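A quick aside before the break. I want you to see a complete sequence-to-structure record at least once, exactly as it would be stored in a machine-readable document. Don't worry about memorizing anything.
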Amino acid sequence: MTEQQRVPAFCTQCRSRCGCEVLVEDGAIVGVEPMPSHPSGKTLCPKGKAVTELVYHKDRLTQPLRRTSPKGAKVPTWEPISWDAAMSEIAGQMGRIRDAHGAEQVAFSVTTPSGTHMSDCISWVERFIRAYGSPNTIYGTEICNWHKDFAARLTYGSDIGTPDFAHTDCVLLWGHNPAATWLARSIEVQKAMRRGVKMIVVDPRPTLYAKRAECWLKVRPGTDQALALGLANLMLKSGRFDVAFVREWTNAAFLVRDDTGAYLRQSDVDPQGDPAVIMAAGSGDDSLLAFDTAGPGQWRADPAKATLMARNQVSTVAGDIPCRTALQIFAEAAAEYPPARVAEITGVPEEQLQKAAGILTDSASVAYYAWNGVGQSATASQTDRAISILYGLTGSYGRAGGNVPGGAGRFNDISGQDLLTDAQRSKALGLEARPIGPGRQGWVTASDVYDAILTHKPYPVRALISFGGNLLAAQPDPQKAKEAFNQLEFHVHTDFFLNATADYADIVLPVATSWEREGLRPGFDVSLDGLRKVQLRPAIIPPIGEARSDTDIVLDLARRLGLADVMFDCDADQGHAHILAPSGIDLEDLKANPEGVTLPVSVKLSAYLEAGFATPTKRLEIYSEQLLQHGYDPVPSLAAETLPAPTDAAYPLRLGSAKTITYCHSQGRNIASLRRLTPDPVLELSLETADAYGIALHDWVEISTKTGRFIARAKPTKELAPDAVFAQHGWAVSTHDDSPNPDGDRLATNFNQAISTEHRDPISGSIALRCSWCEIRKA
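That is the input. The structure line, written in tokens, reads:
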């Protein structure tokens, strides 16, 4: 036996990307341990500790497979084929469809980089897809990261940034439970708590941090937008917000024409005026102030003279026009949500609303994070807008102790956004209905792809190339998915294991885990300090069997399809060197230092002081003319709650979903140690509800909606609202013998069987994964 080696690395099985040391003996992985010196390496979750079970699992795919049974066969059969045969057939089919019909008729599916081994291959895969010319990638972003990363840009001009928990005075967790989803982030929150900071948690469930928070806002599922507007209303009514920041660094004082909803521009009041100059409300003799949006944006007068809330009648070249300031418009929308109404809608008591608003206004800095709890609803984009504007009122964005956008160093992005032509980008499915949504990046919904396959509108999708993921388990409408998969001319699936989606493929390719290939991580966004860390994880062991990395697969296809020149000559080292070039880090230095290197520079604080905000007005946008121009409300204004009262008394309970530390999405149910921790899907329900329905701990429960049904084991839980129940998504495996699932249907436990895609967020396409009406019964 050779001496045990300890190889520095990082895990990619969830967003935490925990730094670790992999233990290797005789060329085999025997364990993994935390690496406390790493910014994200203080601990490991059960998934990270189960490395050996995953890598050496008896059911791992180890060679390419070709279908030998007809599409739709209940038990598909396969034959092994060579990589050359597989790649020749795939490239041939892709080339045929591209040349005869257009690249848009090949759709792709890519598993999330936030919670799978795709983490450090994603840029290569996306670059290949865009180089090929397809604008259609099922990415799941509309029900995952899009709102915090892209909808937030409608307000900040950037994503929500990295929360500086290390220096904040207040932590705000909104629909985000890092104890179950991001352990490294959870540790940063715990450090902040030990410093004695205030904490506000917005969550309908009694999570670890909800129970420890200074203020737990137990919001009803689907009512977050009303809550955010109500808190903003309290801050505005009291005048307790960062007035100086709001006056100078937001568009609060900019005047908006009541007749058109457009900003009042200098050219409106002066025939020789500049349309790039927006007029703001002033005071005294300076009733109109000019703001130049050129460059970083600049006031042409003292911004201290700006009036934040005003209704003015302005003399223009077209006559007198009534105008209001941007903040006036938002304040009027927020005023529709006084504490009593917010309490009625959200279930949060008035005294808790007042307490939360007081904490936000009294804290010198606030750091927040919001994720799936906000993003998985049919009004997710405007909910994110409401939260972003509320946060903007604190003045914390970009400052120490707040949320800071950007990274510590400069890196090149190789995901290839520039490779997709405007003509191809315009063909993205769903883009016409949602013109500023994920489709602009070529990210489409699974539902839109299914419809195109089945209806051939706006054009047929003939092939699907999937990189990981399990659409039948991870996306709603699995029955439509099955129909669509059976209609495809060609279907490829890459994965570690066969799964419900792979069963419909023509060719299945075996993929290497992250422990079997290199992976570059330029910055770990667990903290501002973590962003300075750059690491190249080496291949710890060779790939199992004939497995290949996702990167190697797309580089091979690129060669065969004549795309090598835009794929760095199909040389991963060239691509990595290009990513690193602006940072000054040498690739060979990273290879020689697998523990990573630390950049000598820090994230720039208050960068807006020099560059403004990357919005059309160069200011944090309370009012969005961009939204108005596309037919959306320029300020979030909720006429009714996201989940209106049920129209059918047969479905009286609110159904939401929640994650567990044991699993990430649809992965891991075949890992023995994880299955021992969480053997079956769970339904959390209040003690009162369990008693009313005669349901006891571990009973099997059937959950039904107008769309469908699934089963889970009951977990009566203290402090849950009686009208809300919470299940776990991602299950698509056979249950134990005592379940009411005698035919072994893998989707019987699947949450998405019950989720409708009828109602979508009009901007992003998100659906109500966290707020549907349901009924339950003991199964």
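Two observations worth writing down. The chain has 28 helices and 32 strands. The radius of gyration is 26 Å. We'll return to this after the break.
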